Amino acid sequence: MEDAYRQEKTRLLQDVARGVAETSRFLGKDSLAPATIDAMMRVDRHEFVPHDLLQLAYENRPLPIGHEQTISQPYIVAIMTDMLDLTPESRVLEIGTGCGYQAAVLGEIAAAVVTLERVGALADTAKERLKRLGYSNITVLHADGAQGWAAEAPYDGIIVTAAAEKIPEALVAQLRPDGRMVIPLGRRARTQSLVLLEKGAEGNIREGCHLPVAFVPLIENIL
Fold it and tell me: Is 153 helix (H, G, I), strand (E, B) or coil?
């Protein structure tokens, strides 16, 4: 990793850390786990942004990637990753690959990541990019994210990067008991909340966090 990018990443993670501290009342903690910080530091965000936006790659902000989609704000990527409480043995399902940045961060921690993207062009590009960057533990699929991917279930963690009006039942069914799901809920940007769902051993769901956020909507049955 080039020294220039290391400095940019360090500055970015300082910004992220401040954001975590400022929203601790929602997150229930005021700092990120070391594994999350290490994963964010290892992923080169400039590999995932359009060439004409490279100068903004390490700004703590979302950026357009085409097809009316964005690469998420690093603060959001960090807290969503952190909320899953992953281990090196975890298997994760991501809904909404986009450019592959969030999947790469997950892949730095988890044993396996299955990531679904509804836009074929984005899925193809992300698949090629992640392969080029050496992420052999990430599988990119062009699929309806709201239906999940039952073939590889159950998952220890599920992360949804688009806002759903209600919790998708298919995703809950694919979550392992004692697993966690992070999902933004609410159709309108001004009323969305990032929610942490924890599935109990008996299948009951506990809900927490409720951080105000703004995501693009989760679109179902598009294939």
Answer: coil
Answer yes or no: is 221 within a domain: no
Report the sign of the C-alpha dihedral through residues 32, 35, 41, 46, in that order: negative
Give the range of the structural domain holding residue 65, as residue numbers without chain letter: 3-212
Pairing of strands 112-117, 138-142: parallel
CATH number at residue 195: 3.40.50.150
Q: Which residues are catalytic?
A: 72
In a domain, 78, yes or no: yes
Q: Quote the CA–CA distance of 212 and 121 in Å, as a whole number.
A: 30
The structural domain count of the chain equals 1
Where residue 116 falls (left for φ over 0; alpha for ψ -120 to 50; beta otherwise) is beta
- The Cα 134–Cα 1 span in angstroms is 14
* Assigned domain for 205 exists: yes
Contact call for residues 185 and 166 (beta carbons, < 8 A): yes
Residue 173 lies in a domain: yes
State the Cα–Cα distance between residues 101 and 97, nearest whole angstrom: 8
Q: What is the pTM of this model?
A: 0.93
Render pLDDT for 50-100 as a digit per residue (tens, 0 to 9): 999 999 999 999 999 988 888 999 999 999 999 999 999 999 999 999 999
Spatial separation of the C-alpha atoms in residues 10 and 112, rounded to whole Å:
27
